[in-house]
Structures are given as structure tokens and as C-alpha cells.
Amino acid sequence: MTRFVLPFAACAALGAVALAPAAPAPVDPVVMDAQKQRVAAIKKVHPAVVAVCMPDGSGCGSGVLIDPEGYALTNFHVVQPTGPFPTAGLADGVLYKAVVCGIDKVGDVALIKLVPKEKGKPFPFVKLGDSDKVKAGDWSLAMGNPFSLAMDFTPTVTYGLVSGVNRYQPPEGKGLLEYTDCIQIETSINPGNSGGPLFNMDGELIGINGRGSFEKRGRVNSGVGYAISINQIKNFMGHLYAGIDTDHATLGASVGTASEDAPLAQMVVKQILEESDAFRRGLKEGDQLVSFAGRAITSTNQYKNILGIYPKEWRLPLVVRRNNERAEALVRLMPNQTKEVEKPGQPVPKGPPVPKGPPVPKGGPAETAGMYEARKGYSNWYFNALERDKLLKKVKDNFGDFTAVPGKWALEGTFQMADRNGPMKAEVTEAGGNAKVTMKLNIETALEPLKQTDLVQRQEPIGSGGLMMALYHYHRFLTVGPKGFEGLFAHAGNEPFYPPPADGSAPKSLAALRVDCAVLATKHGSVSCKWYFALPDGTPLGFETYLAPDADDTADRDPCEVYFYDYKAVDGRKLPHKMVVHYRDKRYAALTVTKYTTEK
Length: 600
What we know:
With about 600 residues, this protein is an alpha+beta fold. Among the domains are: about 250-335, PDZ domain (Pdz3 Domain), CATH 2.30.42.10; about 390-600, outer membrane lipoprotein receptor (LolB), chain A (Clam).
């Protein structure tokens, strides 16, 4: 047998050839670009991710800063055990003192404020995205502090798909922690991620992570998590900044499939409460609910989803079909939580902002001393007064200071109604604890608002729902301010407002009239008002005066609605020179003011 013997050098060369690794295949530029985008997004938002901790600094949950003043979003269930004074760690390794501002127990959201180490130094923050643009299959980033892994507060990052949108997760006991219209993700979140941000690949905040499906023994994510959509949170943002213990809404009606034989997408009103605003607007059992707030209704879950993303008392357009005819109405939503009935003469208790939390320490930490005040209906009254006074200052700066003219006001001009028109004159006088309003629209009427208790008289002129009482409160609001409303003078969050066309023409749609407004709520005597100021400039657009919100006749619960137009200067201040008055879905009159007289 012939043997072939190779020299050692040749063998070495052959081995080198055989063992040399193949040259790597070029990476698709699309993959590299996606990686760069992902890394850039993480780098951009990383400094704004918050580790929300107990007052002693121990781990609890997560959050995210949304403005340079140090306000951060998290879950309600994260701050529930911390009480009003959590602490918050950032990726810079610094632990900051914080205070709970506003809470949403139903939607599982809370707003906290971090106190800077250097006064006036801005915090890093993220941009709010548009969660309505999120689609199943989109990539997403979750960041937070799962299992309290990062003792230096450096957030953990996970990456994965959005696996569903517009999901519904029922409440976890007593109507709380209900996730409506939420985002379903496979992006891994675990205990400790609660309250942390969900980002799109542009680094925009699209949701707040809160719930997940976990393997029970190890509490490990099974691949399904849920984030509260940022667009839902936007609806409550005004309430949260104003320190309100807010509530979600109900229509006051149950909705379901018409019948076993009807199409599944045909949803009808099954029951309706007579005390609901929807009932007063004409909604009846058997009406087909076509759309609500601009979104089509095709299932019960979809109805719950849409309804659950709005605060109580918002007015939203609703379209129904009855006898093959469509009708649209603005409907004011009812509270979701049961209202406690107080007995006459019973003192009003002042409850803590977060129920079932630890006792509230007197004064709190030094850094947050004076930044917390308990009051019924508010998570933190300190922030309500802060937002209220900011809004009042903006109105004063732009429209003038009316406290220098607290005497008699006279308005002269013309009125126009459906069946008549003519000259108009009104006077409001308040001095020495006595108040009087007179108005002449063909017929002269007088009202003493502090003495008159008869509801019919308080609603003068007939058909206005109380225009004279409304003018008295308008005068008092401008000339006296918070001190003139002993019952209430508070920021009521943000709401949509729908000023009708000043010329009385029919609008293209109710949604086209919408103006987002900041709202103040007042109460003087037994009369309540809501005042609407356009965002962001604070222009007063009108107000509603409620004379009998709990009247036996539900029709009397409707307010007198006054809308303002055509602001002009009057002695260095600005006042509306046209007012349109509505009551019970009808236009009562349009008042054109040609002359104001104000006295000191």
C-alpha cells in the first residue's frame, strides 16, 4: 500500500485552510436601521423613567416624567401603599421626594410630583404620543423596575410586539382598576413594572403599563400584558393636575344586542335611568345606539370600552336610530362610583387622598411640607388651589381685573328670540349683603337672588332656566372671585364645551363645535355653576347655572347655559358683547350688548 506523507508545514497549511471561518454575511441595512432607531429611542427616554418607591426608599413600582416641572404618571395601585408622600428614583441614581397630586382609582392612574434638588432645575421628560395610531404588530418598548432589580434606579428595558388594541379588562373589585380600551402587549412586564411607560419606536409615550397575566406560583409573565392608553389618560390629565380624586362615567343606560335574531352589531338601549341626562335628552328603551363620541358601537364590550375612557360630567355626542331615522344629541355622563348621601347638618369629613394607605404623616417630609392638603373629593387640595389660581391669573392678565368695579352693572342692547325681538336692558346690584337683578325683554322682571326660594321665580325670565340668577353669579364671579362662593370655588379639570353658532344656524355636527376647556366649579347658596375657559389661552367661553340639580322633576335639573362671543374693551377690560342663552336643548335668546356701565 502506497502512503502519501506530507511535510509538517504542508499539513499546517491545509489545517489552516480547513479551519478558517467563513466571512460574515452582510447585515440587511433595514435591520441595522431598526437597531439604531431602537437604541436612540431608549437613550432619549431613559433619563425620564421613574422608580416609584415607598417613603423609606424601598422598591414599589415604576413611573415616567411627562413635564419639566417634575410631574410623573404611574398607577394608582402603585401609590396606594405609599400614601401621599412616595419617593422617586431616576436613572441619575438620585432619590427624590415626591407627593401624590391626582388619582384615578377606576382607571388605575395617578399623577405624582417630584421635588427638584435645585429649585427651578427642570426634569427630563417624555413626549405624549397618540395611542389611537397604535396597531397590532407594532414594536414597543417597556421600561421600569421589575422585581426592584435596579437598586441604582437604572430602568430595565424590554422589547416586543403590540399584540392587540382596544382590549377590555373588567374591574378588580368594587368597580376599581378597570382597564378599558387598553393596549395588549407581549413586551415583557413583571411585578415592579406597574406604572411604568410603554413607548413606540419614536420614543413617544403611548401607555402606562399596569396589568399582566402571570403564572401564579412564580409570578412570571405568561406573555400577555396590558397598558392604559395615553389617550384615555389625556382625558383625565386636567383632573389629575388639579388634585382631583376623579371618577369615570356611565351613560345611565344598559346596552345590548337587540335580539337573538338581530345582527350582532345592532346594539340597542335595554334599560335607562330616568334621572340620567340621556333620558332628559330623549333616549328611550329600544333605540339603536349607532355611535358614541364619534365611534361606532357594534358590541357590548366596545360600548364599555368607549364609555370607560371618559370622566364623569363630560358632554359627548351620541347618535341613535329610531324608526329608521337618525338623531344626534349631546349627553352629559353620570358618575361611575356610587355617591355617598350626606345627612343634612352632618359635618363634611375630610378623607385622605388614597384610601387604605398608611397614616398621613403630619406635615410630611421637609421637601414636600405644605404640598398636601386633604379634602373630601380631592386627592390633594393643594394642587387644586394651585391650578385654580393659575387659571384665574391667566384670565385676569388677558381680560382685566374686575374687582375694582364691584358696584352696579348695567347692560343695554337688543334681544332676539324665535318669535320676537326688541330692546334689552339688565342691571345687577350687590351691596351690603343685598342683591337685586332686573331685566327687561319687552316685560320687566325683578329677582332678589339671595331671598327668593321659589324655583319658578328663580328661573325667570320664563323659558330661560334662570338667566337673571346666572347674571348675578357672573357679576359675583368677576368682581368678588373665590371669596364670594362659600360653598365651593374649585378647579374641575378639563371638559369639552360646545358653543353653538352665534347666528343660530345649524352646525355641521356637534363634534365640530367642540372646544376643549379648563373648568371652574362654584357654589353660592344653593346654586352651582360651571365656568368654561378655552385651552390654552383661557378665554371665557361661557357658563352653566344649576338651580335645582336634585329636583323631583328631572327636567328642572337642566342648567341655564350662557355662551359668550364678541369680546370688546370696556374701560380697559374685556367683556362679551354677545351672549346666547340655551335651556333644555333649545335656544332661548341671543343678547347683543351695545353698552356696559360698571360702577365702583
